[in-house]
Every structure is written in structure tokens, then in C-alpha cells.
Amino acid sequence: MTALGWSRKFPGKMGGVTFVLLGAPLTAWAQPMSPEIRAQVSPRDFTTLAAEIGAKVEKITVREGERFSKGEILVAFECSIQKAQVDEARTILAAAEKTVVVNQRLLALQSVGRLETEMAIAETDKARARLVASAAVMAKCAVAAPFAGWVVEQRVRAQQFVQPGQALLDILDDSVLELEFVVPSPWLVWLKPGHAFQVILDETARSYPVRLTRIGARIDPVSQTVKVVGTLEGHFPDLKSGMSGRVLLVPP
């Protein structure tokens, strides 16, 4: 055995003849090549907005691929019945409050009993609770954006009747983009949160700085890999969710 390869000795009349095969060092042969690590860009925050009431879609203010602001109304429902219920509950509450005022005056004059006054107060509390419930339903007639971002997919159309829980819009927030990929589990010996590296994305043919933020809680026992997540450092308007590329991450 030599430092550059291996040798073998064959016997002969004049002694052994040694043949030496030159090549890469044995240490290089013993170590497997680092696998190519592929990664995908994904948003940190994304969700599917769903209807909370059964109603007809009156209008959708954004379309697929359009940007919106936090708090902006994205979907509005036709809620004439719910509005009428709120008005009714408000009127009933006003009447109940007037009854309480009158009964309290009559109680002071001993013209009514205390029981009648207490019952009027209870009716006022009931009317107030009904108004709160009606207003809560009315508030669900408009779907506001929970964060600023983009519309990924529009699931319904205007004038369509939807059921509670039915998906309306898929949205995402691209203010913080993450990089998801898997690495061999033995790399966890040296790969820790905070590790800085680069990724080259196929769509832009450019490299971007990434810092590892999270390591998966479970290792796949079959492939002996673990999922890790890094955060792209900086704001890059040319990046979009779903882009993929090659991670420049080499074990020491």
C-alpha cells in the first residue's frame, strides 16, 4: 500500500516485482462526495382565508397576483339580512332600556314592585347580548387581510354563494422568505442554527445569503436526513415563493 494508491507484489525468479497504481489518495477514496443539496424558497407566513358565514359573495377586491395591505378588505359578502338583524336588536335594546328607566321611576313612587323592575333589567341584558351576537355575525361579512402580501389563488367568484368554512383566497406574506431543504443527519454534528451559507437559485442564476434558523425535530430513519430551514438575509424583490436552487453548503 502506498500514499497515492495501492501496490501488489508478484513472485518471480529474480524476486518479487512490485506494481504501483498511482491515483487519488486513499483518504479521498474513503470519503464519500458531498451530495447536492436542493432547496425551495417559501414564505414564512401564508394562509387560506375562508368564509365564516353562509352568504353570497358581493365583491372581491383583489385578483390573483395582486398585492394588498394589512387590514384591507379582500372579500365582502351580501349581508342585508344580518344588517336587519343588527338594526332589530338595537331597537329592542333601546326599548328595553326605556322600560327600565320608567320602572325605576315607578318603583320610587311605589307604583310597581321590585320584581317587575328586576325583570325589566334582565330583559335589557338579554337585548344587549342579542345585539352583541348580531354585530359579531355582521363583522364576518367582510374579510380583512391579516397581513400585507400577495394573492396566490382565488377560490371563489363574485355572486357565488359560499358555505361556512369554504376557502376564498390563498394568500402569502413575502416580507420574510425562508429556504427549506434536507441534509444528511450526520451533518448535525457541525450544522447549527446561525450557520451562514449561500444558495444559487435556478430562476435568477444568482446567489443569495442565507442563515440557518431552525432544525427539524425528527430525523427520517430510512433516508437518515433531517429538514432544516434558513432565512434569506435581505430584501430581494426578484424572489418569489416556489423558486428552487442549489445550496452551497459543504461539511468541514
Can you walk me through this structure?
- This protein is α+β, with helices and mostly antiparallel strands.
- It folds into 2 domains: 37-44 and 175-248, Elongation Factor Tu (Ef-tu), domain 3 (Beta Barrel); 47-168, Helix Hairpins, CATH 1.10.287.
- 24% of the residues lie in helices and 39% in strands.
- The strands form 3 sheets. Strands 3-10-13-12-11-14 form a 6-stranded antiparallel beta barrel.
- Strand 11 and strand 12 form a beta hairpin.
- Helix 2 runs antiparallel to helix 3.
- The relative contact order is 0.19.
| Major beta sheet summary | 6 strands, antiparallel, barrel
Mean pLDDT across the residues is: 87
Number of domains: 2
CATH architecture of the largest domain: Orthogonal Bundle
CATH superfamily of the largest domain: Helix hairpin bin
CATH fold label of the largest domain: Helix Hairpins
As residue ranges, the low-confidence spans are: 1-32
Report the β-strand fraction as a percent range.
35-45%
Strand order of the largest sheet: 3-10-13-12-11-14
Q: What is the H/E order?
A: EEHEEEEHHEEEEEEEE
Tally the beta strands.
14
The structure class reads: alpha+beta
Q: Which CATH first-tier class of the largest domain would you pick?
A: Mainly Alpha
Question: In percent, how helical is the residue content?
Answer: 10-25%
Question: Distance between the terminal alpha carbons, to the nearest Å?
Answer: 27 Å
Tell me, what's the shape? elongated
DSSP summary: helix tally? 3
Radius of gyration: 35 Å
The oligomerization state is single chain
Search tags:
alpha+beta; Elongation Factor Tu (Ef-tu), domain 3; single chain; 14 strands; elongated; 24% helix; 2 domains; Helix Hairpins; 39% strand; 252 residues; 3 helices
